[in-house]
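Q: what sequence does this backbone want?
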């Protein structure tokens, strides 16, 4: 009888100890690193656009950041000069907020809300007059607009330092919609370093 009581007590403590060990949450060392700098390789290759980002991790679920891009594509400039495109986007500055949809800090999906201050050149037809004769001419001007949008993405860390990030999203310009592009794309493949 004493042996049975001893075994029952031993099993009881074994199960309660097992319950406690599974309840302890393991913390990944990557959560101690709060900053990340990223460079978008996809935009550079596909759109001749330099795009860099900084992201600050507030906690395991939320992050804020700022990204900026400059476009310098001779093909797009040529299309704009020849009248194939009405607008030529030249820069973007995007503050963003991200929410992690996964529990893991090393590999996760996220949603993003962003605001885009974007600008560039646009052409419009204007009726001009010279020596009493009227004529139409494409006049080039600059535009600046503000877009609000969202994105979805996936992030993976290698050796808890090097990040690979894929994201896709869209925003809509809301201020100068008569001269600026209606939509702003947010697409990229970032490679980053977390510290």
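A:
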């Amino acid at each position: 009888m004493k042996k049975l009581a001893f075994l029952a007590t031993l099993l009881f403590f074994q199960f309660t100890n097992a319950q406690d060990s599974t309840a302890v949450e393991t913390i990944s060392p990557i959560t101690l690193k709060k900053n990340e700098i990223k460079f978008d390789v996809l935009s550079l290759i596909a759109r001749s656009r330099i795009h860099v980002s900084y992201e600050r991790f507030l906690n395991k679920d939320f992050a804020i950041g700022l990204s900026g891009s400059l476009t310098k594509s001779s093909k797009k400039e040529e299309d704009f000069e020849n009248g194939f495109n009405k607008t030529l986007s030249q820069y973007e500055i995007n503050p963003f907020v991200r929410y992690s949809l996964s529990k893991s800090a090393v590999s996760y999906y996220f949603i993003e809300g962003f605001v885009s201050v974007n600008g560039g050149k646009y052409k419009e037809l204007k009726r001009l007059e010279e020596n009493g004769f009227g004529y139409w001419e494409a006049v080039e001007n600059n535009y600046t607009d503000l877009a609000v949008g969202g994105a979805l993405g996936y992030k993976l860390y290698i050796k808890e330092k090097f990040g690979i990030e894929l994201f896709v999203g869209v925003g809509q310009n809301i201020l100068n919609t008569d001269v600026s592009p209606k939509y702003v794309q947010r697409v990229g493949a970032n490679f980053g370093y977390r510290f």
